[in-house]
Amino acid sequence: MQKQRWYIADNGVYSKLITVMGKKGRTRMAMWLFSEMRNSGCRPDSSVYNALITAHLHSRDKAKALDKALGYFNKMKGIERCKPNVVTYNILLRAFAQARNVDQVNAMFKDLAESSIAPDIYTFNGVMDAYGKNGMIREMESVLSRMKSNQCKPDIITFNVLIDSYGKKQEFDKMEQVFKSLLRSKEKPTLPTFNSMIINYGKARLKERAENIFKKMTDMKYTPSFITYESLIMMYGFCDCVSRAREIFDEVVDSGKEMKVSTLNVMLEVYCRNGLPMEADRLFDKANNIGAIPDSSTYKLLYKAYTKADMKDLVQKLVKEMEKDGIVPNKRFFLEALEAFGSLPASPDSVQATRSGRPETNAKTEVKVIN
């Protein structure tokens, strides 16, 4: 890039390139770009360091990545043109919350409070979302209190994070209180608001509450998305209402809209979870006719269900379909499927054949019939 005399890369270009390399997990390339940038005479700024921190946080070794990120953060403090900004704090706060490092999150908040930088809505939403996904409700509530003390008003993301987090922990009283607060606020619910409540009520087998939320949604003139229908199908599956789940699925098929393979997979999962592998097989046979092309997730969930039910004929049929569709099972595929119900291969050879190319029929049979 720099060899082209007619073009000189600037901080913005390097920052974007470093970010892209980080997202692809190519941390070394990101570091090389950073070094190349300085060698070319281009001086890094806060945006470049933020990109470099983010790149490291995409690496697999999270503990090492956080140490590196903190090192860059401290280095930024000593360079006038690279002082940490609110984006820097937001990146690190979320990362430490994802790592469940409460002490470091509190230390970062203290550092932020002592600086001249004001936190924004993204600061608090990012940390609450990370805590919520980790099931750390009390820590999430602590950040919410901090947000209120900073007189930062919640937006729809804030409400959705709280609703989803409380719902996943089945703290429905709090979830419903937040939903009522949302309806009283200037913010408006979004489809994810309703979808989250439907699926979380379903997991708790609270069918009537889930149905009431869907009714509330339609009364407010919201148009259900395919994710809404998938949430309903899954909800009825959790509540042992398989026939109703199938009715919803058929409505989606008959609507004439593009059929998503994820919707097919949800219906198949409902059948499998409720001990109906034959129904799942019949639907699988119709997949192409309804415009849903099975993917690797389809095959994986069916393989797990058929193997667990010891339905060897269906497993053999499924593997043949995989071959026909050009999906070659590998060692990871079989191990994940077998681990789902606590079984292990009888011998390493039973999965070794899948390492490269198309496995032999005998090798497949040996794996799929293990109990």
TrEMBL record:
Composition skew (Basic and acidic residues), residue ranges: 357-371
PPR-type repeats, residues: 10-44, 85-119, 120-154, 155-189, 190-224, 260-294, 295-329
Compartmental location: Plastid, Chloroplast
* Annotated region (Disordered), positions in chain: 347-371
One Pfam family named in its UniProt record: PPR_2
Give the keywords, sorted.
Answer: Chloroplast, Plastid, Repeat, Transit peptide
| Principal subcellular localisation of the protein | plastid
Which InterPro entries does the protein's record reference? PPR_rpt, TPR-like_helical_dom_sf
Q: Name one GO cellular component term.
A: chloroplast
Domain of life according to the entry:
Eukaryota
Sequence similarity? Belongs to the PPR family. P subfamily.
Q: Which NCBIfam families match?
A: PPR
Query: What is this protein's record name?
Result: Pentacotripeptide-repeat region of PRORP domain-containing protein
Species, as recorded: Gossypium tomentosum (Hawaiian cotton)
Taxonomic classification = Eukaryota, Viridiplantae, Streptophyta, Embryophyta, Tracheophyta
